[in-house]
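Example 9 (inverse folding). The structure is encoded as follows.
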């Protein structure tokens, strides 16, 4: 270290051969004096020397010098340490520390609202650090998201990833720890947002896939891992690579609760649909599938009760589960090596579904076999779908198509490495209901929003989306928002897709030493958060004492001044719709008695206590 200079925490950690987090904790505890310049800490040489001198007098005792109680305490601490799984040097993050001093809220950017679908839901674009956006969403949307798709920084070492406003390159010895701390902070917040049937899809490449898989096992639990999909994103391969030309990336897929998650089938390709080449007299198309179980669990001993004979009338082709006159051919489920197999249906299921079965003589084997009709359109009128596989190699997934889609809107190369909308459409079609809510908190160029609108336009769905992005290089204002606006309004020869969007930015309320001041400040800035939570943006009444908003299904009322409660109730009763009422209280009182005579269906909620309770859990702060 040079004479007469200031040191960063990283430099001190490297010099003392300790973790960055250790130095940070010394500073926070006041043991090591530091000067804060912006968001960075700087340590003067004299202060460091003083600290090092003080440490010389504090020599750790030898084990033989410890008494019994001290040894027991040390053993307990060792046992509590993590022994298996992903372990890294957790790096404090400025945006997370900020939330201990300031509480995030939302402010709508006036003049940016897009309203083109009178009966549609409202999509959201939130500009700000995604840690803050996810914190707010923990109040507004906890347990309500059906699908999360993210495309985080890949941490390639090429300055594409920033931590605490500094680029993290390949020479940073804490590169992986910083990336894992960054991802862990956000994934833990994101998991709270998923519904019980919700699913997370995360794009990643070889640089961090091994670490991310272990991190997701920890955050979501290993038992909720669904799969790792290989996406052929670059069919030509990266020719600049020395040994192998990589053609793929990955999608890691985790459920909030794997047992509750339920995937949709994918629409059949033209090639798959052509497999249904047989036709009934009524025009209904079908194909024949063998009734014998194939693949796993296909042996007789796996399901003994599904091994039984079927009988065929070789004159008529009819099938029976009992041997009777005219049914002289016995058919048993056997594999090609002649070992015993089993049917995929039980005997009772076969008996009740004989009209779906066909018997055929297999010429090359000179024996009869049983087949089941598999219809292109099911009995409920739904077209057959296919189960997604773990390798996605469709030509439309070429990531060059993502650039082409942006070029068609902006007429210039405006964003590096955008994903194609086809990729997101496949994810949403697979994992979201048609009225589902999709979140992307690394929204970038806005591909997810574009894809959701295209899929809705294609299948008549009513899905909505939330996009979260920062505004580095003006990406939110110059790329994400204009792209969604162009998709809604139309661009070039492409017709617009009617939809609604509202644009918000994160802002902050300072925490005061006086708890009531914090509460008053938060209430004054919480109106837009409540509107987002309730999806009610049409303003009916805007007074200092109270505000009332609505959508087509319900009303949101926000009361600030209890002296105006009678006037507030009269306004609510005029609307004759179910109502959610938010009442300002310095405590947790919802004033139930004051609303007992309200002549409509309603639900009461205190503010800001309901918001503060969420933030206390997230930021581990004490109750004020």
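The amino acid assigned to each position is listed next.
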């Amino acid at each position: 270290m040079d004479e007469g200079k200031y040191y960063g925490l990283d430099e001190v950690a490297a010099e003392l051969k300790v973790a960055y987090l250790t130095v940070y904790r010394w500073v926070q505890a006041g043991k090591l004096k530091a000067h804060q310049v912006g968001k960075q800490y700087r340590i003067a040489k004299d202060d460091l020397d003083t600290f090092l001198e003080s440490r010389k007098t504090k020599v750790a005792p030898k084990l033989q010098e410890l008494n019994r109680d001290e040894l027991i305490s040390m053993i307990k601490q060792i046992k509590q340490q993590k022994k298996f799984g992903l372990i890294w040097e957790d790096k404090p993050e400025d945006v997370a520390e900020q939330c201990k001093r300031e509480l995030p809220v939302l402010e709508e950017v006036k003049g940016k609202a897009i309203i083109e679908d009178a009966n549609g839901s409202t999509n959201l674009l939130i500009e700000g650090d995604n840690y803050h956006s996810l914190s707010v969403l923990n109040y507004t949307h906890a347990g309500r998201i059906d699908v999360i798709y993210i495309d985080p920084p890949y941490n390639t070492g090429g300055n594409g990833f920033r931590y605490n406003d500094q680029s993290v390159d390949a020479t940073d010895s804490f590169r992986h720890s910083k990336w894992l701390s960054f991802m862990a902070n956000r994934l833990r917040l994101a998991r709270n947002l998923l519904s019980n049937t919700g699913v997370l899809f995360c794009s990643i490449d070889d640089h961090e896939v091994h670490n991310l898989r272990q991190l997701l096992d920890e955050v979501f639990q290993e038992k909720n891992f669904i799969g790792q999909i290989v996406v052929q994103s670059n069919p030509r391969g990266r020719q600049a690579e020395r040994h192998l030309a990589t053609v793929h990336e990955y999608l890691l897929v985790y459920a909030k609760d794997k047992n509750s998650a339920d995937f949709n089938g994918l629409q059949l390709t033209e090639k798959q649909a052509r497999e249904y080449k047989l036709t009934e007299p009524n025009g209904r198309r079908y194909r024949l599938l063998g009734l014998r179980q194939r693949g796993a669990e296909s042996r007789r001993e796996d399901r003994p009760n599904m091994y039984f004979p079927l009988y065929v009338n070789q004159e008529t082709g009819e099938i029976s589960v009992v041997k009777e006159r005219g049914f002289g051919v016995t058919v048993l489920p056997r594999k090609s090596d002649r070992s015993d197999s089993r049917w995929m249906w039980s005997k009772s299921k076969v008996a009740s579904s004989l009209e779906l079965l066909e018997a055929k003589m297999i010429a090359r084997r000179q024996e009869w076999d049983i087949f089941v009709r598999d219809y292109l359109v099911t009995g409920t009128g739904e077209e057959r779908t296919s189960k997604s596989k773990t390798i996605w190699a469709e030509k439309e997934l070429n990531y060059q198509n993502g650039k082409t889609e942006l070029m068609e809107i902006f007429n210039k190369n405006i964003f590096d490495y955008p994903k194609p909308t086809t990729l997101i459409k496949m994810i949403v079609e697979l994992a979201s209901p048609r009225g589902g809510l999709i979140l992307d908190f690394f929204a970038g160029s806005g591909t997810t929003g574009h894809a959701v609108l295209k899929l809705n336009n294609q299948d008549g769905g009513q899905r909505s989306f939330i996009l979260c992005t920062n505004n580095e290089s003006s990406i939110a204002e110059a790329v994400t928002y204009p792209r969604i606006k162009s998709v809604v309004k139309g661009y070039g020869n492409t017709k617009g897709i009617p939809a609604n969007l509202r644009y918000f930015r994160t802002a902050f309320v300072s925490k005061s030493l006086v708890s009531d001041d914090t509460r008053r400040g938060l209430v004054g800035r919480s109106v837009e958060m409540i509107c987002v939570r309730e999806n009610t943006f049409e303003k009916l009444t805007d007074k200092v004492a109270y505000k009332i908003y609505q959508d087509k299904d319900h009303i949101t009322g926000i009361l600030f001044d209890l002296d105006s409660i009678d006037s507030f109730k009269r306004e609510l009763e005029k609307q004759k719709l179910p109502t959610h009422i938010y009442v300002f209280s310095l405590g947790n009182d919802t004033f139930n008695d004051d609303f007992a005579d309200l002549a409509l269906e309603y639900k009461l909620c205190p503010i800001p206590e309901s918001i503060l309770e969420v933030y206390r859990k997230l930021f581990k702060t004490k109750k004020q």
